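sanity check this:
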Amino acid sequence: MAANASVVPSAYQAYTSAAVPDWLNKGDNAWQMTSATLVGLQSVPGLVILYGSIVKKKWAVNSAFMALYAFAAVVICWVVWAYKMSFGEELLPFWGKAGPALGQKFLINQAALPATVHKHKDGTVETAEATPYYPMASMVWFQCVFAAITVILLAGSLLGRMNIKAWMMFVPLWLTFSYTVGAFSLWGGGFLFHWGVIDYSGGYVIHLSSGIAGITAAYWVGPRTKADRERFPPNNVLLMLAGAGCWWMGWAGFNGGDPYSANIDSSMAVLNTNICAATSLLVWTWLDVIFFNKPSVIGAVQGMITGLVCITPGAGLVQGWAAIIMGILSGSVPWFTMMIIHKKWLLLQAIDDTLGVFHTHAVAGYLGGILTGLFAEPILCSLFLPVTNSRGGVYGGVGGVQLLKQIVGGGFIIGWNIVVTSIICVVIRFMTPLRMPEEELLIGDDAVHGEEAYALWGDGEKYDSTRHGGASDDQTPLQKSSIGATQVV
């Protein structure tokens, strides 16, 4: 017994010393894993519920499944090759070398982020390496859920008509050739990273790219049916709000996790995120009341989204007063582009962007990036940014240069996504149609998946009393009453 007792502690100590090395910051690691979980919950179940509820009943299953499939596909692609393309060794100034992030040797005894170190000719370092003190596995998973939600947001432009087989091809291709370029350029040590373009948590990498790629893909896929474009009511407003609520609360991890540490920046980011989102929601709602005489629940959700998106590129780098200004603008500028410009610009009218992702993500994301170039506070910048002496335009000095950097950086993301998304869609079109057949477009989920969201009948389908057991929308109130009476009897 005594011999065994002496062996057990030594074995335990050897195990714990390997599992918890001296360099590991358990607090930061715990926050990073919590943040990753919150961001993951934004997609599953958040956007799965939101997409499945905000569309017509006949598209509920298909819309939710597009989100669910994208999440699963991105996870596998990410750990097999895409993570290293985003955060690995440099292949090109805007792209990393592909490789797996699976082996145990990559997950233990290494600091997380292998960002490229940029040196001047005299040997001095301008852009230092980011060195959070936790396993690389934490970073791989944290960045994975960001990549996943980007593709899911893009799907919002394509709901209600994209061929599911085409979508299954599109996800890995777009992740590989579009998302990884933006991520490496701005976060992983690429040329925009070294130049000092600010994207605190994905206003450009995630939202601008998904909004531009979404409307570009929508152009190539084509529109929904005429009936769906004219009338596309949510099938469950309360569930839509539940999904939106998951999204809002999950943003604490979205923005709070991006300093890669539980520090001052993370606290500021979480507070500013909620300030901007609340302000934007209120502004959008009041604009709806002023111009349409009714507060719209969908409009409030859109205002919430634009506020969350707008604050993202500068969440931990601006003061609270700036977050309020950004909320006012994010609740009004995208509202104006969606409600006014969209209805007058023939190009936007011709492209069927189902959920208006261009307005809520591309416009709001670019707006947030530009406003970050104005309001980024120097002391907060020094806690986060790789390039020294960074500051927003309102703080003078080189602030005007920062604004220019923000505009150019966003322009690169826009141009790359338009070109690459178009190429991907054209390539897929040679293998399978991008748009569903007309019969599937008329029927919806039952034709595409053989499944329906609710055991109810509606949405303009051809009425079959033996199958649906309810009343047709085309019947008179008397006919509906008679059927209802028969069912009760």
Remarks:
- The radius of gyration is 24 Å.
